[in-house]
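Workshop exercise sheet. Pairs work together: one partner reads the sequence aloud, the other fills in the structure field after running the prediction. Swap roles for the next sheet.
Pair: D.N. / O.F.
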Amino acid sequence: MNHFQSVADRLSAYDLDGFLVLSEPNRLYVTGFPSTAGAALVTGEGSCFFTDSRYIEAARRAITGAEVRENTAKQTTLTQVEELIRSRGLRRVGYEDAYLTVAELRRLEEKLSCELVPATRLLLELRAVKDPEEIQQMIAAQRIAEKALAEVLDFIRPGRTEREIAAFLQYRMLLGGGEKMSFDPIVVSGPNSSMPHGVPGDRPVGEGDFITMDFGCVYGGYCSDMTRTVAVGHVTEEMERVYAVVLEAQQAGITAARAGITGAAVHNAAAAVINRAGYGPYFGHAFGHSLGVEIHESPNATPSNEESLPTGAVISAEPGIYLPGRFGVRIEDVIIIEERGCRDITLADKELLILLASK
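Structure field:
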């Protein structure tokens, strides 16, 4: 799976003769090949991927739809890119202005004879709409994460630390086929669960705690993402009420989500539920973000996004309520935007789960 042709087909719309792809996530998207080094030059006359001796054999086996060339100390990537630019008469070549540093751009300007045109938007527009193959990779990544969730529920007991639970989740996702983590897992318990992006520490889980676990893995280059909040032993009436409000808010956002509606409208549908319940000040982040080859992509379901969500966008659905110093609740699924609604690809149960305190 690669997207050389998709990029080539959009060049004329941006008045470009080619596109130089240097960043790791966009290289993966365009070539379908994971590597920490390399570059792709996409043109209407054909594309080329350049990499070094560490990746050349694997790249030639894996990449289709483009020529694969090896760079060396004498024939560097930029030397070969410049040769192609001159031989094909490329005048305007797009580059990833959202990814390059100033120093990297200056180096390109020194080495290349074409006009370099900032054009990250071309790639982001393509990446915003997932094709069936991309969706299948994301579903596979989601299933790996869900299996790890089922396994960690048997691992959790009073005395286990947040760090131990996070380590167990990572181990089970890797053992289950994940290539790496989508991000560093968030595991926070008790009063720590009021911090949406708290870092797992040495706090032992105790009876009466909420534990929020936010995690995901990469499969086939694509990310999964999910959050579940579970309780240990027992919950208070307020904990139960807050959990119910978050679940209702998530469902409201999911119900509102469809192609053509704005990201703000989806967020506001969920926020309205939380506001009516009196917890509005305690929901400070957005309803959701897009994900794919990166864990945070666009478009997003944020209160500021007045652009319509396209068919094929994949976004998280993750409202939360966080009561400082007391507890927090977040529930997260991943949904695919469709013409008449959305499809939830997360299968893990969302009803309040209270784990036995003794096992």
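Discussion prompt: The chain has a mean pLDDT of 97. What would you look at next?
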